Each structure stands twice: as C-alpha cells, then as structure tokens.
C-alpha cells in the first residue's frame, strides 16, 4: 500500500528539462550559495599561507586599474601609479588546488568584485553554450565581457579542451580577463587520459595565458565529518518522505539505477533543470557504479545538486562508495574524490 506522503513526492526521472542558448546565458552567474561571496568573507586557513596569498592576488586582479598620477604643467614630472599589489600581468588566473579549499568561493568573490559585464559558469556550461549557439554565436555573446569565470576546468574530452582554449584565445585578444579553477594545473591537464600531440599543444597555449596559483589546504567540508555517508534503512527513508511531505516541502523519490539511466538521456547542461523546486533528494537502493560514463554523468549531476545545496537521503550502499571498478585509481581520481566529499556533506545536510 502506498502512503499519502509517497503520492505527494515527485520523481526526477519524470523530468526531461532542456535549456536554450539564451536561457543558458542567463544562468551564467554564481550559484545561490555564493550570492554574497566576497574576499572578506573568505576565511584563509592560517596553516596554509597560500590561501591568503591567493585571495590578495585575486583582489588585486579584480580591482580597477589605478589612474596614472600626473604632476607639473602639462603632465611634466608625472609620477607612475603605485601598484595596489603584485597583480598578475597575464589575462588569466588559474586556481589549482585540492577540493574543499575555497577555490569556488574565491572565484565568485572575484566575479562580485569586478565591475562591468561578466559571466560565471562551469566548463560544461560554456561548452554547452557553444553547442547551442555555435562557436561564432557564443563568441558574439561573450565578447566585450570584462571577466569570464570558469569553474571546474576538468577535461573529459580533448576536443572540448581545444574548443575552450580557442575561445579563451579569441576573447583575451579583445581584452576579456579569465579566472578558472581546477584540481589539476594547466601543464598537467590530460595526464593519464590523453597523449595526443595536438592536445598537449593546446594545453600549452592555455598555460601561456594564465598565471597559476596553487592553493593548499584541507577539505573544509570534511572537518566535522568522519567516514562514509550513513545510508538510511527502508523505514527511516519512509519517515523522511513523510516528514518532508508534512512540512509541505518537495522531496523527490527515485530508484538509483533508474536515475543513472535517466541522466544519460539529459544533457549535463540541463541537469540543473531536474532540480527546480526540489528541497531534498531521495534515492533508493544505491549501489556501486562500474561504468565510467555513468559515473561521470553522476558526478556532473551532483555538482549541480551541490550548487543548489539540496540534501540527499539514500538507502542501500553508502552513497560515498559508489565509485568502484578501480575508478579511484584512474585519471578521474580527483573528480571522484571531490564528488565523494560533496556527497558526504549533502548527506549530512539538514533539510531547509
């Protein structure tokens, strides 16, 4: 017998969102959790000086260019403007570091501190924009922006890498500045994945345009968490559904295998559309994934869930143990570890 609370729940697999190029452009802003991110609200860990150094370099990078002081008659005896800080001279900043050290916070803080037209999105969102508008159409939309922020520059395909480096090259030549984050520095992108000479040439071209800043530290999401996420029993899961329904909140209820299959039918750029109005995600019978493509789609989905800060409640295997088949030893190790960190935090999150 199905309870009233189960009748009131929605299912992610029933949703088939699509997003147009125009709609995608409108979403190129920081996620809601970073609406008020600033350099002052970033809390550097004193045990890792590179965090403070990164903040100050980005603060200088985002600051308006200082006016030149002119002295004497007709500018004779003019003085050089004093530098606010040792701001990087290249048009791009590349933030490299482990997950959970505040790279996205600093990226959003740079976006908020920069005046003029600007965009903030993930690597997937920018490649999707090119797919929707065509390359020239995407360049036309982005051209003239003072700043473009690219979060999680993690490369799954050498073609996408070449596309993005071409886009960066065309836009930096017209004055646009870039800040990108990744768990892998530019000169190591592709290691353990691709070895084509043209791929490495493209990586070098991108590296030449970016000043790399390494941020050390520990994963802040795990400071108060130990071990894997704890799955719910079937009874606890039913209670969770009932509690959310009683509070007139929206909790989705999906079989894990069905969700994984459904993600293959939705473009990753539209994953955020799956989450509209959702305040908690329920997943039944979580199990280990052994297919790399399925695992990477799940990572992309969880990235959007984390951006929206939607708690997860699940039964079956601990959701932080879903990456099997030696995946944690492969080229996407850092991507999976970041996802596991986010899954652990979301599983422990309170329902708003």
Describe the structure.
- With 352 residues, the protein is of the alpha/beta class.
- The protein has 2 domains: 4-17 and 221-348, no CATH class; 31-218, P-loop containing nucleotide triphosphate hydrolases (Rossmann fold, 3-Layer(aba) Sandwich), CATH 3.40.50.300.
- 38% of the residues lie in helices and 13% in strands.
- The protein has helices spanning 4-8, 21-26, 49-62, 103-113, 123-133, 135-142, 158-172, 197-207, 234-246, 256-263, 292-308, 333-348; strands at residues 92-97, 118-122, 147-151, 177-182, 210-215, 251-255, 280-286, 312-316.
- Strand 7, helix 11 and strand 8 form a beta-alpha-beta unit.
- The longest helix is centred in the C-terminal third of the chain and has 17 residues, at 292-308.
- The relative contact order is 0.15.
- Pfam families: AFG1_ATPase.
SSE arrangement:
Elements: H1 4-8, H2 21-26, H3 49-62, E1 92-97, H4 103-113, E2 118-122, H5 123-133, H6 135-142, E3 147-151, H7 158-172, E4 177-182, H8 197-207, E5 210-215, H9 234-246, E6 251-255, H10 256-263, E7 280-286, H11 292-308, E8 312-316, H12 333-348
Parallel strand pairs: 1-4, 1-5, 2-3, 3-4, 6-7, 7-8
Protein name: Cell division protein ZapE
InterPro entries: ATPase_AFG1-like, P-loop_NTPase
Organism: Leucobacter alluvii
């Amino acid at each position: 017998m199905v309870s009233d609370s189960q009748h009131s729940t929605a299912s992610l697999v029933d949703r088939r969102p699509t997003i147009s190029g125009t709609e995608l452009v409108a979403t190129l802003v920081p996620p809601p959790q970073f609406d008020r991110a600033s350099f002052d609200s970033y809390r550097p860990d004193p045990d890792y000086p590179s965090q403070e150094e990164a903040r100050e370099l980005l603060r200088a990078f985002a600051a308006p260019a200082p006016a030149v002081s002119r002295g004497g008659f007709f500018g004779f005896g003019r003085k050089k403007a004093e530098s606010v800080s040792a701001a990087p001279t290249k048009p791009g900043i590349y933030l490299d570091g482990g997950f959970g050290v505040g790279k996205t916070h600093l990226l959003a803080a740079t976006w908020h501190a920069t005046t003029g037209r600007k965009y903030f999105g993930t690597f997937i969102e920018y490649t999707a924009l090119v797919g929707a508008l065509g390359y020239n159409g995407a360049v036309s939309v982005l051209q003239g922006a003072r700043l473009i922020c690219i979060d999680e520059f993690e490369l799954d395909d050498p073609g996408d890498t070449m596309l993005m480096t071409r886009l960066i090259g065309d836009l930096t030549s017209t004055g646009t500045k870039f800040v990108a984050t990744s768990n892998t520095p530019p000169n190591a992108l592709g290691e353990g994945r691709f070895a084509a000479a043209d791929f490495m040439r493209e990586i070098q071209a991108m590296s030449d345009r970016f000043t790399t800043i390494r941020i050390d530290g520990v994963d802040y999401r795990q400071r108060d968490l130990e071990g894997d996420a704890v799955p719910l029993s079937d009874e606890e899961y039913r209670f969770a559904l009932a509690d959310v329904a009683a509070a007139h909140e929206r909790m989705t209820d999906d079989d894990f295998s069905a969700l994984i299959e459904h993600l293959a039918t939705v473009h990753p750029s539209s994953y955020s559309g799956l989450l509209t109005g959702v305040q908690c995600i329920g997943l039944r019978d979580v199990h280990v994934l052994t297919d790399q493509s399925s695992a990477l789609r799940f990572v992309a989905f969880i990235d959007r869930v984390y951006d929206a800060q939607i708690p997860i409640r699940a039964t079956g295997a601990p959701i932080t143990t879903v990456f099997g088949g030696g995946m944690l030893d492969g080229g996407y190790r850092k991507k999976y570890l970041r996802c596991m960190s986010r899954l652990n935090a979301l599983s422990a999150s309170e329902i708003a």
